[in-house]
Each structure stands twice: as structure tokens, then as C-alpha cells.
Design a protein that fits this description.
Helices cover 40% and strands 24% of the residues. Helix 2 runs parallel beside helix 4, helix 4 runs parallel beside helix 6 and helix 5 crosses helix 6. The chain has two domains: 73 residues, Nucleic acid-binding proteins (OB fold (Dihydrolipoamide Acetyltransferase, E2P), Beta Barrel), CATH 2.40.50.140; 154 residues, Recombination protein O, C-terminal domain (de novo design (two linked rop proteins), Up-down Bundle), CATH 1.20.1440. It has seven helices and eight strands; from the N terminus they run E-E-E-E-E-H-H-H-H-E-E-E-H-H-H. A hairpin with a 4-residue loop joins strand 1 and strand 2. It is of the alpha+beta class. The strands form two sheets. It has a five-stranded mixed barrel. A three-stranded antiparallel sheet has the order 7-6-8.
Amino acid sequence: MFDKTKAIILKKTVLSGNGLIVKMYTQEFGVKSYFGRISKKNKTQYSPLSLVNITAYNNPKKNIQNVKEYELVVPFRSIYQDIYKSNILMFINEILNQVIQEEEQNLAKFLFIENSLLRLENEKLSMDFHLVFLMQLTQFLGFEPNMDSDKIYFDLEEGELTNIIPVHPNFLDEKETIMFKSLYELAFGIRNNGGFENKSRKRTLQILVAYYKYHADMKNLKSLQVLETVFN
């Protein structure tokens, strides 16, 4: 039996003999792993977050399926020619590898990621792209922050605003709460605040990563320091 599906490449592991294992987020089946082969012709077609169409054998007794047909849908050109875009792609790729694990269909989440990647490739870059992406992604991961009040502190653990300083240290002060709320309003179209300056962008990203760590069991990100260096 064969399965046909769109997919987004999350990770590849190169094996001996020109073989590789490719972890993909598929439109139809969630996260799946596939066996493929590298040739001189297709060695650039397994790049991180590439958008592909695949036809693969489906053997429910196996954890790794064999790919019968593989097609790169959108070659990334603009992304790899722009140091900001390419580093944003690497950063997003590392996060998605950690927070997307389910082997089930989630069409809304898949389409959101696919459309975001197409915007990154085809549109002029907003320097807040990665911030907006991560904030919007929270709604598909089940921990969108509750910002619907005028309270002055944000509790990272509870994911909501409060007027009472929490008993734990994992909360944002008034200034940082304003920054975090500004990102939320920008990401969800509540208010266009014009984006962030470099210093506030860096701090807002650090806050957002901390928020993810509380709610997605995310480990330290190797690409974060690189991204911060490039943007500085």
C-alpha cells in the first residue's frame, strides 16, 4: 500500500552507503520517518524545512517507511541568499524538531507552518518574523498565552496575566510584560505597534523561549546564540 502526502523535512540522518533517514512532518500522518538515498542530483533536496511531496510504502509494522517517489515542491532561494532568513530558518527548524512529535494529522498546524515558510521565502523579511511565528505557533501547540486583561505581571508558568506577584520567580515584570503583550498583539493582529528595536527584540525572544521551555519541555537551543549574534 502507498501513501501520498505533502511533507516538511524536520531532520535528516545520513547513513553509510548514500542512505539517509528523513524525519518529516506530513500533512496526512503527522511526524513520520522515511528511508531515502542521496545522489549528486538530489543531495540538496533534503534541506531543513524543505516542502516536498512524497509517495511512500506504508507498513504499519515498521517505524521507518521507504520512499517510492520524492519531489521538492519549493526550492528555497531567497532564504539561502539572505543571512537573516537562513538563520531564522535554522532557528525555527530546531524548535519544530523539539515541539512537534505527534504521529497524527493536524491540518491547521501543518498549513500554518507551510504558509509561514512560503512567506519567509517569497516576502520581504520582517525582522520580527521569528517572534511572530513562535507566538502564533502557541495556538497550535495548546499553550497560547492568556493576555486578555490589563493586569501588570505575566506568569510564565500559568501562561496568564496577574496583578499579584507570583510566589515563584518565573514571571515578567511590568516592563517585560508590556513587551510580551505587544508581541501578542502584533502576532494576532490586535494592534500594529510597528515592531521591535534590536534590544527589545532580543529580550522578547529570550522571554518567548523561556515560555516555550515551561510549556513544551524544550531543551536549550544551539541556534539561539547564533541568531542573536547575526541580528546584533
